[in-house]
């Protein structure tokens, strides 16, 4: 049986939910059948973070994060970047001469940790 990630519960921390969800996308069980994700990998297995952030479940979690902020103006993407750093199944690449300290969402690519070549289509 295929495991489907649980829906986020009101008791779950949205940032933790985001980390779990993105980790799930790069898990063995998901990559075995997620052709869309694999089609969007470049020749080195990298996927733009922006693509992941447009997935329906991720959007729901991000809305939860935004709703939990007292001031929506506070939401600048740093919460997302901190959440992906906690993921265990992926590597992070910063592009456009950015680093972990000054990268924006558009400056981040992700790929499965370890043997990414096996997932290239």
TrEMBL record:
SUPFAM superfamilies: Winged helix' DNA-binding domain (SSF46785). InterPro entries: La_dom_prot, La_HTH, WH-like_DNA-bd_sf, WH_DNA-bd_sf. Pfam families: La (PF05383). Residues 8-109 form the HTH La-type RNA-binding domain. SMART domains: LA. GO terms for molecular function: RNA binding. It comes from the Eukaryota. Keywords: RNA-binding. PANTHER family: LUPUS LA PROTEIN-RELATED. This is HTH La-type RNA-binding domain-containing protein. The lineage of its organism: Eukaryota, Fungi, Dikarya, Ascomycota, Saccharomycotina.
């Amino acid at each position: 049986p295929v495991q489907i990630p649980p829906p986020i519960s009101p008791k779950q921390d949205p940032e933790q939910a985001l980390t779990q969800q993105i980790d799930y996308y790069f898990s063995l069980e998901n990559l075995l059948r997620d052709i869309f994700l694999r089609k969007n990998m470049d020749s080195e297995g990298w996927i733009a973070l922006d693509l992941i952030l447009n997935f329906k479940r991720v959007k729901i979690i991000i809305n939860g994060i935004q709703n939990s902020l007292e001031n929506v103006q506070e939401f600048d993407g740093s919460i997302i970047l901190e959440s992906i750093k906690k993921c265990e199944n992926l590597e992070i690449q910063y592009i456009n001469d950015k680093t972990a300290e000054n990268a924006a969402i558009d400056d981040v690519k992700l790929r499965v940790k370890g043997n990414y070549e096996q997932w290239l289509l």
